[in-house]
Amino acid sequence: MELMEFTQRVSAVLAERFPEEKFEVFPDQGLIVTPALQLGLQNLHSEWRMAFTEMTEAEFNRRVLNHFEQAFAMVGDPSLVNPQWEAVRPRLRLQLANLQIPQFAAMVTFPFSRQVCSAIVIDSPQGYAYVSKANLAEWGQTSVDLLEIAQNNLREAVQDTNLMQVPAPDGGGLLFVQESDGYAAARVLLPSFREFLIESLAPQDGFVWVGVPNRDFLLAWSDQVSPTTKQTLAQQIAVDAQQQHHPLCGVPLRVSRETIEPQE
After folding, report:
1. H helices within the chain, ranges in order?
2. Are strands 207-211 and 218-221 parallel, antiparallel or unpaired?
3. CA 2 → CA 48, 77, 81, 99, 218, distances in Å?
4. Tens-digit pLDDT profile for residues 215-225
5. How distant is the alpha carbon of residue 131 from its chain centre?
6. Which of 181, 193, 108 has its CA nearest to residue 146?
7. pTM, whole model, 2 decimals?
8. What is the DSSP letter of 89?
9. Does residue 94 contact residue 189 with C-beta atoms inside 8 Å?
10. Which burial class, exposed, middle or buried, applies to 31 when counting CB atoms under 10 A from its CB (0-12, 13-18, 19+)?
11. How far apart are CA 252 and CA 238, in angstroms?
């Protein structure tokens, strides 16, 4: 099922579950719009292709509703619908996101790579909402100020990160972030986390390689791994960035304490 047909099928499920909502459907963009929400379906479509193509109709409907009921719950959170500065300030986080998301033109973003930007979000128990340029103007803040606050908040939020470090089969080391908090990949934006990766894997080199093919995955490796392993990891990152939900960067990043360099 291609994105256009998938979008039409999802819109029918949502219209039945939420008859009070007014849905505008853009099948060619994989987008469903209500007066309060823009629901991009690219991530759900990728997940469907990977995980639940064989579901029955009832199972498909249930999965769609589980995915979007959180979004409708977020609309009921006043701190996201009408965010006030003092309330949202401690909830700001840095995030990585794919530049293909159409509404990003109105959001506060920062360059990262050809495929990805960094952005600022308001965290909530149901997920997160992107900070817009209109929010910035309403709060009387600059993007630089928000960047610093969001970076500090993210650093505090991810102090207890679950990690797995293993030796590579032919020399060098690998490190995986094992978290489902929505910020696994975004950790690479933190200088303190980059320092940790370097000290853990390659203190003498002063840099490591990092892969962030999707939002919920981060892999780092030292330059001491073999050329074969490097090639295998780069190929897998490219595949995952095409196939996984919440896709990000399809190329390795050369990461030092001060810099992040996508190998584009």
Report:
1. 3-17, 42-51, 57-75, 78-81, 85-88, 133-139, 143-157, 191-201, 227-243
2. antiparallel
3. 11, 33, 32, 21, 28
4. 999 999 999 99
5. 14
6. 108
7. 0.78
8. G
9. yes
10. buried
11. 9
